[in-house]
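Same chain as my last thread, 520 residues:
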Amino acid sequence: MPKQCRARYVGKVDPTLRRDKWTDEEDKRIVAAQHRLGNRFADIAKLLPGRSESIVSHRWHLVLQWRRDDMLQAMGEHDYDFLGDVAKDAPKKERREWSLEEDALLVKLVEEMGEGNWPTIAQHFEGRQPKRCRDRYLNKLDPSLTSTAWTEDEDRKIVAAQSRLGNRWQEMSKRLQGRSERAVKERWFSVLQHKADEVLHTLTASDFDFLLPSVSLAHGGPRRKTPDGDDLMGGVQQDPTGVMGGDDGVGQPPPQDLKNPWTLEEDALLAKLVEEHGLGKWTMVAKQLPGRMPKQCRARYVGKVDPTLRRDKWTDEEDKRIVAAQHRLGNRFADIAKLLPGRSESIVSHRWHLVLQWRRDDMLQAMGEHDYDFLGDVAKDAPKKERREWSLEEDALLVKLVEEMGEGNWPTIAQHFEGRQPKRCRDRYLNKLDPSLTSTAWTEDEDRKIVAAQSRLGNRWQEMSKRLQGRSERAVKERWFSVLQHKADEVLHTLTASDFDFLLPSVSLAHGGPRRKTPD
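reply #2:
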Protein backbone atom coordinates (compact mmCIF):
# COMPACT_ATOMS: atom_id res chain seq x y z
CA MET A 1 0.00 0.00 0.00
CA PRO A 2 1.16 3.61 -0.52
CA LYS A 3 1.24 4.17 3.25
CA GLN A 4 3.51 1.14 3.72
CA CYS A 5 5.86 2.30 0.96
CA ARG A 6 6.17 5.73 2.56
CA ALA A 7 6.78 4.31 6.03
CA ARG A 8 9.41 1.86 4.78
CA TYR A 9 11.30 4.50 2.80
CA VAL A 10 11.37 7.29 5.38
CA GLY A 11 12.04 4.86 8.22
CA LYS A 12 14.57 2.43 6.70
CA VAL A 13 15.53 2.91 3.05
CA ASP A 14 16.16 6.65 2.71
CA PRO A 15 19.97 6.88 2.18
CA THR A 16 20.11 10.21 4.05
CA LEU A 17 19.11 8.56 7.33
CA ARG A 18 21.67 8.66 10.13
CA ARG A 19 22.30 5.71 12.42
CA ASP A 20 24.97 7.15 14.70
CA LYS A 21 24.47 7.86 18.40
CA TRP A 22 22.09 10.56 19.57
CA THR A 23 23.71 13.84 20.63
CA ASP A 24 22.72 16.00 23.59
CA GLU A 25 21.71 18.76 21.17
CA GLU A 26 19.33 16.41 19.33
CA ASP A 27 17.77 15.27 22.59
CA LYS A 28 17.27 18.89 23.62
CA ARG A 29 15.62 19.69 20.28
CA ILE A 30 13.21 16.77 20.55
CA VAL A 31 12.13 17.79 24.06
CA ALA A 32 11.74 21.46 23.08
CA ALA A 33 9.82 20.62 19.89
CA GLN A 34 7.54 18.15 21.64
CA HIS A 35 6.81 20.75 24.31
CA ARG A 36 5.60 23.21 21.65
CA LEU A 37 4.19 20.87 18.95
CA GLY A 38 3.01 17.86 20.94
CA ASN A 39 3.52 14.40 19.44
CA ARG A 40 3.74 15.63 15.84
CA PHE A 41 6.85 13.53 15.20
CA ALA A 42 6.69 13.90 11.42
CA ASP A 43 7.17 17.67 11.87
CA ILE A 44 9.79 17.21 14.61
CA ALA A 45 11.81 14.83 12.40
CA LYS A 46 12.09 17.55 9.76
CA LEU A 47 14.05 19.60 12.29
CA LEU A 48 16.57 16.78 12.82
CA PRO A 49 18.46 16.03 9.56
CA GLY A 50 18.90 12.31 9.00
CA ARG A 51 16.39 11.20 11.66
CA SER A 52 13.12 9.53 10.65
CA GLU A 53 9.70 10.09 12.16
CA SER A 54 9.61 6.59 13.66
CA ILE A 55 13.04 6.79 15.27
CA VAL A 56 12.29 10.23 16.77
CA SER A 57 9.03 8.87 18.22
CA HIS A 58 10.92 5.86 19.57
CA ARG A 59 13.56 8.10 21.20
CA TRP A 60 10.87 10.23 22.85
CA HIS A 61 8.73 7.45 24.28
CA LEU A 62 11.57 5.22 25.50
CA VAL A 63 14.10 7.76 26.78
CA LEU A 64 13.22 11.43 26.77
CA GLN A 65 9.70 11.70 28.13
CA TRP A 66 10.96 10.67 31.57
CA ARG A 67 13.67 13.38 31.50
CA ARG A 68 11.43 16.07 30.02
CA ASP A 69 10.72 18.10 33.17
CA ASP A 70 14.37 18.39 34.20
CA MET A 71 15.46 19.30 30.67
CA LEU A 72 12.73 21.92 30.23
CA GLN A 73 13.71 23.63 33.49
CA ALA A 74 17.25 24.07 32.17
CA MET A 75 16.11 25.61 28.86
CA GLY A 76 15.74 29.27 27.97
CA GLU A 77 13.61 30.91 25.29
CA HIS A 78 16.54 30.86 22.86
CA ASP A 79 16.49 27.06 22.92
CA TYR A 80 13.26 27.22 20.91
CA ASP A 81 14.64 29.48 18.16
CA PHE A 82 15.31 26.54 15.83
CA LEU A 83 11.55 25.92 15.59
CA GLY A 84 10.97 29.06 13.54
CA ASP A 85 7.43 29.09 12.13
CA VAL A 86 7.08 25.31 12.02
CA ALA A 87 4.28 25.38 14.62
CA LYS A 88 2.31 27.68 12.32
CA ASP A 89 3.21 26.05 9.01
CA ALA A 90 2.55 22.43 9.99
CA PRO A 91 -1.12 21.59 9.40
CA LYS A 92 -2.88 20.41 12.52
CA LYS A 93 -5.62 17.81 12.25
CA GLU A 94 -8.81 19.10 13.83
CA ARG A 95 -10.99 16.66 15.76
CA ARG A 96 -14.61 17.59 16.35
CA GLU A 97 -15.58 17.58 20.01
CA TRP A 98 -18.53 15.47 21.17
CA SER A 99 -21.59 17.56 22.01
CA LEU A 100 -23.86 17.04 25.02
CA GLU A 101 -26.63 15.90 22.66
CA GLU A 102 -24.34 13.30 21.05
CA ASP A 103 -23.25 12.02 24.45
CA ALA A 104 -26.86 11.62 25.58
CA LEU A 105 -27.83 9.83 22.36
CA LEU A 106 -24.81 7.52 22.61
CA VAL A 107 -25.71 6.48 26.18
CA LYS A 108 -29.32 5.86 25.11
CA LEU A 109 -28.32 3.73 22.12
CA VAL A 110 -25.93 1.59 24.19
CA GLU A 111 -28.70 0.97 26.73
CA GLU A 112 -31.00 -0.14 23.93
CA MET A 113 -28.58 -2.18 21.78
CA GLY A 114 -25.89 -3.18 24.26
CA GLU A 115 -22.12 -2.71 24.06
CA GLY A 116 -20.51 -4.23 21.01
CA ASN A 117 -22.98 -3.10 18.35
CA TRP A 118 -20.77 -0.13 17.48
CA PRO A 119 -21.22 -0.24 13.66
CA THR A 120 -25.00 0.00 14.09
CA ILE A 121 -24.71 2.68 16.75
CA ALA A 122 -22.32 4.74 14.60
CA GLN A 123 -24.96 4.96 11.85
CA HIS A 124 -26.92 7.34 14.10
CA PHE A 125 -24.06 9.87 14.13
CA GLU A 126 -22.79 11.94 11.22
CA GLY A 127 -19.02 11.66 10.77
CA ARG A 128 -18.46 9.29 13.71
CA GLN A 129 -16.67 5.97 13.22
CA PRO A 130 -17.61 2.83 15.21
CA LYS A 131 -14.25 2.95 17.01
CA ARG A 132 -14.83 6.57 18.06
CA CYS A 133 -18.26 5.68 19.46
CA ARG A 134 -16.80 2.75 21.37
CA ASP A 135 -13.88 4.77 22.78
CA ARG A 136 -16.15 7.66 23.79
CA TYR A 137 -18.52 5.39 25.70
CA LEU A 138 -16.01 3.07 27.36
CA ASN A 139 -13.56 5.83 28.31
CA LYS A 140 -15.93 8.67 29.23
CA LEU A 141 -19.64 7.83 29.43
CA ASP A 142 -19.82 4.34 30.92
CA PRO A 143 -21.71 4.87 34.23
CA SER A 144 -19.52 2.27 35.97
CA LEU A 145 -16.39 4.46 35.57
CA THR A 146 -14.87 6.26 38.53
CA SER A 147 -12.65 9.34 38.66
CA THR A 148 -11.32 8.89 42.17
CA ALA A 149 -7.58 9.07 42.90
CA TRP A 150 -5.55 5.99 42.05
CA THR A 151 -4.78 3.70 44.98
CA GLU A 152 -1.54 1.87 45.70
CA ASP A 153 -3.36 -1.45 45.24
CA GLU A 154 -4.51 -0.43 41.76
CA ASP A 155 -0.97 0.62 40.81
CA ARG A 156 0.38 -2.74 41.95
CA LYS A 157 -2.30 -4.53 39.93
CA ILE A 158 -1.46 -2.59 36.78
CA VAL A 159 2.26 -3.40 37.11
CA ALA A 160 1.51 -7.08 37.79
CA ALA A 161 -0.93 -7.30 34.89
CA GLN A 162 1.39 -5.52 32.45
CA SER A 163 4.21 -7.94 33.26
CA ARG A 164 1.98 -10.85 32.21
CA LEU A 165 -0.29 -9.32 29.55
CA GLY A 166 1.94 -6.72 27.94
CA ASN A 167 0.08 -3.63 26.73
CA ARG A 168 -3.34 -5.27 26.51
CA TRP A 169 -5.16 -2.38 28.17
CA GLN A 170 -8.65 -3.76 27.55
CA GLU A 171 -7.81 -6.96 29.44
CA MET A 172 -6.34 -4.96 32.32
CA SER A 173 -9.31 -2.60 32.60
CA LYS A 174 -11.63 -5.59 33.02
CA ARG A 175 -9.75 -6.43 36.21
CA LEU A 176 -9.81 -2.91 37.64
CA GLN A 177 -13.32 -1.91 38.74
CA GLY A 178 -14.30 1.50 37.36
CA ARG A 179 -11.15 2.14 35.32
CA SER A 180 -11.24 2.56 31.53
CA GLU A 181 -8.70 1.30 28.99
CA ARG A 182 -7.46 4.84 28.39
CA ALA A 183 -7.12 5.58 32.10
CA VAL A 184 -5.08 2.42 32.66
CA LYS A 185 -2.87 3.15 29.66
CA GLU A 186 -2.22 6.74 30.73
CA ARG A 187 -1.48 5.67 34.31
CA TRP A 188 1.10 3.17 33.04
CA PHE A 189 2.99 5.52 30.72
CA SER A 190 2.81 8.65 32.88
CA VAL A 191 3.55 7.17 36.32
CA LEU A 192 4.22 3.44 36.54
CA GLN A 193 6.43 2.45 33.59
CA HIS A 194 9.68 3.90 34.90
CA LYS A 195 9.26 2.41 38.38
CA ALA A 196 7.77 -0.94 37.34
CA ASP A 197 10.95 -2.91 38.16
CA GLU A 198 10.92 -1.65 41.76
CA VAL A 199 7.23 -2.51 42.20
CA LEU A 200 7.63 -5.97 40.64
CA HIS A 201 10.43 -6.73 43.07
CA THR A 202 7.98 -6.30 45.98
CA LEU A 203 5.21 -8.53 44.55
CA THR A 204 4.52 -12.07 45.70
CA ALA A 205 2.74 -14.91 43.91
CA SER A 206 -0.57 -13.99 45.57
CA ASP A 207 -0.43 -10.51 44.00
CA PHE A 208 -1.09 -12.13 40.63
CA ASP A 209 -4.17 -14.08 41.78
CA PHE A 210 -6.56 -11.42 40.45
CA LEU A 211 -5.44 -12.41 36.93
CA LEU A 212 -6.71 -15.98 37.31
CA PRO A 213 -9.75 -16.88 35.17
CA SER A 214 -11.74 -17.84 38.27
CA VAL A 215 -11.77 -14.20 39.40
CA SER A 216 -14.87 -12.32 38.25
CA LEU A 217 -14.12 -9.45 35.88
CA ALA A 218 -15.21 -5.85 36.25
CA HIS A 219 -16.87 -6.22 32.86
CA GLY A 220 -16.60 -9.51 31.04
CA GLY A 221 -16.62 -8.18 27.51
CA PRO A 222 -19.03 -6.63 25.04
CA ARG A 223 -22.69 -7.10 26.04
CA ARG A 224 -24.98 -7.59 23.08
CA LYS A 225 -28.73 -8.12 22.89
CA THR A 226 -30.16 -11.12 21.04
CA PRO A 227 -33.30 -10.75 18.94
CA ASP A 228 -35.21 -12.17 21.92
CA GLY A 229 -33.68 -9.63 24.32
CA ASP A 230 -31.30 -12.07 26.01
CA ASP A 231 -27.81 -10.96 26.99
CA LEU A 232 -24.70 -12.17 25.20
CA MET A 233 -21.48 -11.87 27.21
CA GLY A 234 -18.38 -11.36 25.11
CA GLY A 235 -20.41 -12.24 22.03
CA VAL A 236 -21.10 -15.84 23.21
CA GLN A 237 -24.55 -16.85 24.41
CA GLN A 238 -24.70 -18.45 27.83
CA ASP A 239 -25.29 -22.21 27.64
CA PRO A 240 -27.19 -23.55 30.66
CA THR A 241 -27.71 -26.95 29.01
CA GLY A 242 -24.02 -27.63 28.61
CA VAL A 243 -24.34 -28.79 25.00
CA MET A 244 -21.67 -26.36 23.84
CA GLY A 245 -19.00 -28.22 25.75
CA GLY A 246 -18.58 -30.26 28.87
CA ASP A 247 -16.29 -32.54 30.78
CA ASP A 248 -16.46 -35.19 28.08
CA GLY A 249 -14.87 -32.79 25.60
CA VAL A 250 -17.87 -32.69 23.26
CA GLY A 251 -18.17 -29.33 21.57
CA GLN A 252 -14.78 -28.15 22.83
CA PRO A 253 -13.00 -25.65 20.57
CA PRO A 254 -10.41 -27.08 18.18
CA PRO A 255 -6.73 -26.91 19.09
CA GLN A 256 -5.54 -23.35 18.73
CA ASP A 257 -3.03 -22.12 16.23
CA LEU A 258 0.49 -22.51 17.62
CA LYS A 259 1.21 -18.90 16.67
CA ASN A 260 -1.50 -17.66 19.04
CA PRO A 261 -0.26 -15.83 22.13
CA TRP A 262 -0.77 -17.50 25.48
CA THR A 263 -3.98 -16.53 27.26
CA LEU A 264 -4.39 -15.84 30.97
CA GLU A 265 -6.42 -19.02 31.30
CA GLU A 266 -3.59 -21.06 29.76
CA ASP A 267 -1.00 -19.44 32.03
CA ALA A 268 -3.11 -20.20 35.09
CA LEU A 269 -3.66 -23.80 33.98
CA LEU A 270 0.04 -24.20 33.18
CA ALA A 271 1.03 -23.00 36.66
CA LYS A 272 -1.50 -25.39 38.24
CA LEU A 273 -0.32 -28.38 36.17
CA VAL A 274 3.35 -27.77 36.98
CA GLU A 275 2.46 -27.52 40.66
CA GLU A 276 0.63 -30.87 40.43
CA HIS A 277 3.06 -32.81 38.25
CA GLY A 278 6.35 -31.05 38.99
CA LEU A 279 8.99 -29.58 36.68
CA GLY A 280 10.13 -31.79 33.82
CA LYS A 281 6.78 -33.47 33.10
CA TRP A 282 6.22 -31.31 30.04
CA THR A 283 4.73 -34.05 27.86
CA MET A 284 2.11 -34.76 30.50
CA VAL A 285 1.44 -31.04 30.95
CA ALA A 286 1.13 -30.43 27.19
CA LYS A 287 -1.55 -33.13 26.85
CA GLN A 288 -3.83 -30.98 29.00
CA LEU A 289 -3.14 -27.80 27.01
CA PRO A 290 -4.67 -28.32 23.55
CA GLY A 291 -2.50 -27.06 20.73
CA ARG A 292 0.63 -26.60 22.84
CA MET A 293 3.82 -28.65 22.49
CA PRO A 294 5.92 -29.79 25.47
CA LYS A 295 8.76 -27.48 24.43
CA GLN A 296 6.38 -24.51 24.34
CA CYS A 297 5.02 -25.32 27.79
CA ARG A 298 8.51 -25.48 29.25
CA ALA A 299 9.61 -22.22 27.58
CA ARG A 300 6.47 -20.39 28.72
CA TYR A 301 6.77 -21.57 32.32
CA VAL A 302 10.48 -20.98 32.88
CA GLY A 303 10.40 -17.67 30.99
CA LYS A 304 7.13 -16.07 32.16
CA VAL A 305 4.90 -18.02 34.54
CA ASP A 306 7.31 -19.38 37.15
CA PRO A 307 6.44 -17.40 40.34
CA THR A 308 10.08 -17.47 41.49
CA LEU A 309 11.24 -15.33 38.56
CA ARG A 310 12.73 -11.95 39.40
CA ARG A 311 12.05 -8.84 37.36
CA ASP A 312 14.20 -6.30 39.17
CA LYS A 313 17.27 -4.61 37.70
CA TRP A 314 20.42 -6.59 36.95
CA THR A 315 23.21 -6.23 39.49
CA ASP A 316 26.93 -5.95 38.75
CA GLU A 317 27.47 -9.27 40.50
CA GLU A 318 24.96 -11.01 38.23
CA ASP A 319 26.57 -9.53 35.13
CA LYS A 320 29.97 -10.73 36.34
CA ARG A 321 28.60 -14.23 36.92
CA ILE A 322 27.06 -14.42 33.45
CA VAL A 323 30.34 -13.38 31.80
CA ALA A 324 32.39 -15.79 33.92
CA ALA A 325 30.00 -18.69 33.37
CA GLN A 326 29.76 -18.06 29.62
CA HIS A 327 33.56 -17.98 29.43
CA ARG A 328 33.76 -21.47 30.97
CA LEU A 329 30.52 -23.08 29.75
CA GLY A 330 29.88 -21.37 26.42
CA ASN A 331 26.29 -20.50 25.50
CA ARG A 332 24.70 -23.11 27.79
CA PHE A 333 22.24 -20.59 29.17
CA ALA A 334 20.01 -23.20 30.77
CA ASP A 335 22.95 -24.17 33.01
CA ILE A 336 24.00 -20.56 33.58
CA ALA A 337 20.45 -19.60 34.63
CA LYS A 338 20.59 -22.22 37.39
CA LEU A 339 23.45 -20.21 38.94
CA LEU A 340 21.33 -17.04 39.04
CA PRO A 341 18.29 -17.50 41.32
CA GLY A 342 15.14 -16.02 39.83
CA ARG A 343 16.53 -15.54 36.31
CA SER A 344 15.23 -17.61 33.40
CA GLU A 345 17.23 -19.15 30.58
CA SER A 346 15.73 -16.80 27.98
CA ILE A 347 16.35 -13.61 29.97
CA VAL A 348 19.97 -14.63 30.71
CA SER A 349 20.53 -15.30 27.00
CA HIS A 350 18.94 -11.95 26.19
CA ARG A 351 21.18 -10.14 28.70
CA TRP A 352 24.29 -11.78 27.24
CA HIS A 353 23.60 -11.12 23.57
CA LEU A 354 22.33 -7.54 23.92
CA VAL A 355 24.57 -6.14 26.65
CA LEU A 356 27.37 -8.29 28.01
CA GLN A 357 29.09 -9.89 25.05
CA TRP A 358 30.44 -6.47 24.01
CA ARG A 359 31.85 -5.84 27.51
CA ARG A 360 33.19 -9.38 27.93
CA ASP A 361 36.89 -8.74 27.25
CA ASP A 362 37.16 -5.81 29.67
CA MET A 363 35.28 -7.68 32.39
CA LEU A 364 37.36 -10.85 31.99
CA GLN A 365 40.60 -8.89 32.32
CA ALA A 366 39.43 -7.56 35.69
CA MET A 367 38.54 -11.02 37.04
CA GLY A 368 40.65 -13.33 39.13
CA GLU A 369 40.42 -17.11 39.56
CA HIS A 370 38.25 -16.66 42.67
CA ASP A 371 35.53 -15.07 40.51
CA TYR A 372 34.88 -18.53 39.07
CA ASP A 373 34.45 -20.27 42.45
CA PHE A 374 30.64 -20.03 42.27
CA LEU A 375 30.68 -22.42 39.28
CA GLY A 376 31.73 -25.37 41.42
CA ASP A 377 31.45 -28.59 39.41
CA VAL A 378 28.70 -27.33 37.14
CA ALA A 379 30.93 -27.57 34.08
CA LYS A 380 31.43 -31.26 34.84
CA ASP A 381 27.89 -32.03 35.99
CA ALA A 382 25.99 -30.33 33.16
CA PRO A 383 25.55 -32.84 30.33
CA LYS A 384 27.05 -31.65 27.06
CA LYS A 385 25.50 -32.71 23.78
CA GLU A 386 28.04 -34.54 21.69
CA ARG A 387 28.02 -33.99 17.95
CA ARG A 388 29.68 -36.57 15.73
CA GLU A 389 32.37 -35.09 13.50
CA TRP A 390 32.18 -35.60 9.74
CA SER A 391 34.72 -38.10 8.44
CA LEU A 392 36.77 -37.67 5.27
CA GLU A 393 34.80 -40.49 3.67
CA GLU A 394 31.51 -38.78 4.47
CA ASP A 395 32.76 -35.48 3.07
CA ALA A 396 33.85 -37.15 -0.17
CA LEU A 397 30.51 -38.94 -0.52
CA LEU A 398 28.58 -35.74 0.18
CA VAL A 399 30.48 -33.85 -2.56
CA LYS A 400 29.88 -36.69 -5.01
CA LEU A 401 26.14 -36.88 -4.25
CA VAL A 402 25.69 -33.11 -4.66
CA GLU A 403 27.46 -33.28 -8.03
CA GLU A 404 25.10 -36.08 -9.10
CA MET A 405 21.81 -34.80 -7.64
CA GLY A 406 22.39 -31.06 -7.35
CA GLU A 407 21.95 -28.74 -4.37
CA GLY A 408 18.50 -28.79 -2.84
CA ASN A 409 17.87 -32.54 -2.84
CA TRP A 410 18.99 -32.76 0.77
CA PRO A 411 16.34 -35.26 2.02
CA THR A 412 17.40 -37.73 -0.69
CA ILE A 413 21.10 -37.09 -0.08
CA ALA A 414 20.68 -37.57 3.70
CA GLN A 415 19.36 -41.10 3.14
CA HIS A 416 22.91 -42.15 2.16
CA PHE A 417 24.24 -41.21 5.62
CA GLU A 418 23.51 -42.90 8.93
CA GLY A 419 22.38 -40.44 11.59
CA ARG A 420 22.66 -37.33 9.40
CA GLN A 421 19.70 -35.01 8.97
CA PRO A 422 19.03 -33.16 5.67
CA LYS A 423 19.82 -29.82 7.34
CA ARG A 424 23.18 -31.11 8.57
CA CYS A 425 24.06 -32.29 5.05
CA ARG A 426 23.08 -28.93 3.60
CA ASP A 427 25.03 -26.94 6.21
CA ARG A 428 28.11 -29.12 5.83
CA TYR A 429 28.23 -28.67 2.08
CA LEU A 430 27.33 -24.99 1.82
CA ASN A 431 29.53 -23.89 4.73
CA LYS A 432 32.56 -26.18 4.31
CA LEU A 433 32.69 -28.27 1.12
CA ASP A 434 31.29 -26.03 -1.63
CA PRO A 435 34.27 -25.58 -4.04
CA SER A 436 33.26 -21.96 -4.69
CA LEU A 437 34.03 -20.97 -1.08
CA THR A 438 37.11 -18.93 -0.19
CA SER A 439 39.01 -18.63 3.08
CA THR A 440 40.91 -15.43 2.31
CA ALA A 441 40.94 -12.53 4.75
CA TRP A 442 37.88 -10.31 4.82
CA THR A 443 38.16 -7.08 2.85
CA GLU A 444 36.87 -3.65 3.83
CA ASP A 445 34.50 -3.75 0.84
CA GLU A 446 32.98 -7.04 2.05
CA ASP A 447 32.51 -5.64 5.55
CA ARG A 448 30.72 -2.59 4.14
CA LYS A 449 28.48 -4.84 2.05
CA ILE A 450 27.54 -6.96 5.06
CA VAL A 451 26.62 -3.89 7.12
CA ALA A 452 24.62 -2.42 4.23
CA ALA A 453 22.83 -5.71 3.55
CA GLN A 454 22.03 -6.33 7.21
CA SER A 455 20.45 -2.88 7.53
CA ARG A 456 18.05 -3.78 4.68
CA LEU A 457 17.63 -7.56 4.97
CA GLY A 458 17.97 -8.13 8.70
CA ASN A 459 19.60 -11.44 9.67
CA ARG A 460 18.85 -13.19 6.39
CA TRP A 461 22.33 -14.69 6.07
CA GLN A 462 21.50 -16.86 3.07
CA GLU A 463 20.42 -13.81 1.06
CA MET A 464 23.57 -11.95 2.09
CA SER A 465 25.90 -14.81 1.18
CA LYS A 466 24.47 -14.88 -2.34
CA ARG A 467 25.79 -11.33 -2.79
CA LEU A 468 29.28 -12.06 -1.44
CA GLN A 469 31.28 -14.22 -3.82
CA GLY A 470 32.87 -17.18 -2.02
CA ARG A 471 31.39 -16.50 1.44
CA SER A 472 29.09 -18.99 3.17
CA GLU A 473 26.05 -18.21 5.30
CA ARG A 474 27.90 -19.22 8.45
CA ALA A 475 30.94 -17.11 7.59
CA VAL A 476 28.80 -14.02 7.01
CA LYS A 477 26.86 -14.61 10.24
CA GLU A 478 30.03 -15.07 12.31
CA ARG A 479 31.62 -11.99 10.76
CA TRP A 480 28.59 -9.91 11.69
CA PHE A 481 28.33 -10.98 15.32
CA SER A 482 32.05 -11.17 16.08
CA VAL A 483 33.28 -8.00 14.35
CA LEU A 484 30.70 -5.82 12.63
CA GLN A 485 27.61 -5.62 14.83
CA HIS A 486 28.99 -3.26 17.45
CA LYS A 487 30.46 -0.85 14.88
CA ALA A 488 27.63 -1.04 12.35
CA ASP A 489 26.32 2.46 13.16
CA GLU A 490 29.71 4.02 12.37
CA VAL A 491 29.98 2.16 9.05
CA LEU A 492 26.41 2.98 8.03
CA HIS A 493 27.11 6.65 8.61
CA THR A 494 29.80 6.54 5.88
CA LEU A 495 27.68 4.76 3.24
CA THR A 496 26.10 6.48 0.25
CA ALA A 497 23.16 5.41 -1.90
CA SER A 498 25.49 3.70 -4.41
CA ASP A 499 26.82 1.41 -1.67
CA PHE A 500 23.43 -0.33 -1.66
CA ASP A 501 23.32 -0.94 -5.43
CA PHE A 502 24.62 -4.50 -5.07
CA LEU A 503 21.34 -5.40 -3.35
CA LEU A 504 19.24 -4.54 -6.41
CA PRO A 505 17.56 -7.52 -8.11
CA SER A 506 19.27 -6.68 -11.43
CA VAL A 507 22.68 -7.52 -9.95
CA SER A 508 23.76 -11.11 -10.61
CA LEU A 509 24.14 -13.21 -7.48
CA ALA A 510 27.11 -15.30 -6.40
CA HIS A 511 24.80 -18.30 -6.33
CA GLY A 512 21.21 -17.83 -7.30
CA GLY A 513 19.65 -20.57 -5.20
CA PRO A 514 19.48 -24.36 -4.95
CA ARG A 515 20.78 -26.13 -8.03
CA ARG A 516 18.91 -29.33 -8.81
CA LYS A 517 19.43 -31.93 -11.53
CA THR A 518 16.56 -32.53 -13.93
CA PRO A 519 15.61 -36.08 -14.98
CA ASP A 520 17.52 -35.39 -18.22
